[in-house]
Amino acid sequence: MKDNLDPFRVLLGVLASQNESDLIVAASNLAGLAVDLTLPEEDRTNVQRIRTLQPRILKAYDALEDQAKLIAAQAAIANLGPRAHHLMDRVNAALANIGWIVQDGHLAALEPDLREMFFPKGSQWCHRTLKCGH
Question: Which of 14, 21, 68, 80 pairs as cysteine with 64 (C-beta 3.0–4.6 A)?
Answer without folding.
Answer: 68
